[in-house]
Amino acid sequence: MDWEGFFTSYRKPGFIPGFEIVNKLGSGVFGEVYKARKESIGKFYAIKFLKVTDERVSEAIFKELDSLRFFAQIDHPNLVSIEDKGEVMGIPYIIMGYAGDETLKKRLAQGALPEAEADEMFRQICSGVAALHEKSIIHFDLKPANIFMKGHHARVGDYGLSKLVSESHMTMSIGRGTPYYMAPEMLTRKGDHRSDIYSLGVILYEMLTGRVPFTGDSEWEVLRKHENQKLEIPDIVKPPYRGIIQRCMCKQPEGRFQSVNEILALLEGRPVTASRPPAASPKRGCGPPPLPRKSGECGGFRKRTRVEKRLGGELGRLAEVARRNPRSEEYRAEFAAARAAKVLEPVGQDSVYIDFEEDPDEPSAAPSSEAVPSRPSRPARRRRSFFGWLFRPVTVLISGVMGLLKGILRGLGVFFANFLRYALVIGITLALALLIHAALRGFDGELIFAGW
């Protein structure tokens, strides 16, 4: 990547075909952002030139840029649109819609926002994030610097870019979130769409108070406070914002809002209904949600009941029989009826991982018919015999010796291969020297003899 050539040439006409770079908008760990005008129609755009400091992952970054084809299909008034991508001087760039020179970070630098302005702006931010989640895209780096302002219109940007550059940096402040706005589970890289909801709570806290909830002398100190320290909300934060922040910033993901639409419903005074979280998607830019954990101190999100477990076990066996015997009209009809009743649809985040197992302390439900086979149990773990334990060290020792011998033989092979190569080169050199010596002696034998 020729950054020196970039800084000396980016103002030249035709540097980016069809665009004229007007001025610089900002820079950061993700790259340089410039305001550009499209020459054919005079419309302004923002071009972000990505920084990849590690050349070893540059090839992977260029491959990941193909995922922007999917992001470019998203059209929402509260999202910064992605228009095109390209490469110049070995530097990848992304052309985005121009969302204004100002960010929420610049506005918050002047202090807390009035409640009415914060309410209007926060609803727009939530609408943009909800549109991403509906497409199974998780931002993972929501912060005021990524929220662009044009008057009172807010747009969420930089979605899908954190994954592209995360592997080329070593600090936690970039790539997969910013410590001041990062959910606790991001420490173990097990975040999902509820990690964005946690970041929304931090943003609302800062909009109403003018500061972030947790600070520290290092990134790890801030992250640990997000994980362990109790959240304290000043009295200036009034309902319903106080309750929204408290629930969004719950330490355990199960205690938070399970959908951004629930936050919007609460802000708009509509009844909050438990909505189904976005399903895991194989698209790039987001990973699968983590396995559900036991609820913590915030509560409020009930696990599936034992009745649902038993019903899930019966439906799982019914589905297995229908799969094995597709010609059985009886089982197919029962399975279709259960599907139509939406009993098999996932009820919540936990249902993604339902494997139709029951609790060991619960009696298993009997099959509805003798023709329905029971679910095969997992094979018992084979216990090692006395002789197995006795000969285990011997087998480990033998395998270790064999591995050592293989390594020695491989090293000797490499040595002799190089030795023969070097011997061949030396032999050819000596032969050429002898030929030259013999040729010179034919012309002037005394001179050659004196020289040698």
Written description of the protein model:
This protein folds into 3 domains: 3-267, Transferase(Phosphotransferase), domain 1 (Orthogonal Bundle); 306-353, no CATH class; 426-452. It has 14 helices and 8 strands. The protein has helices at residues 3-9, 58-64, 68-71, 104-108, 115-134, 162-165, 193-209, 219-228, 241-248, 260-267, 306-324, 329-340, 386-443, 445-451, and strands at 19-27, 31-38, 44-50, 82-88, 91-97, 102-103, 147-150, 153-156. α5 runs antiparallel to α10 (260-267), α7 (193-209) crosses α9 and α11 packs across α12 (329-340). It is extended. Residues 164-176, 279-304 and 342-377 have low confidence and may be disordered.
Instruction: Give the overall shape, derived from the CA principal axes.
Output: extended
Cα-atom radius of gyration: 32 Å
**Approximate helicity band:** 40-55%
Beta content: 5-15%
CATH superfamily of the largest domain, by name, is Transferase(Phosphotransferase) domain 1
> Strand pairing plus helix content: what structural class?
alpha+beta
CATH topology of the largest domain: Transferase(Phosphotransferase), domain 1
Q: Based on DSSP secondary structure assignment, what is the total number of beta strands?
A: 8
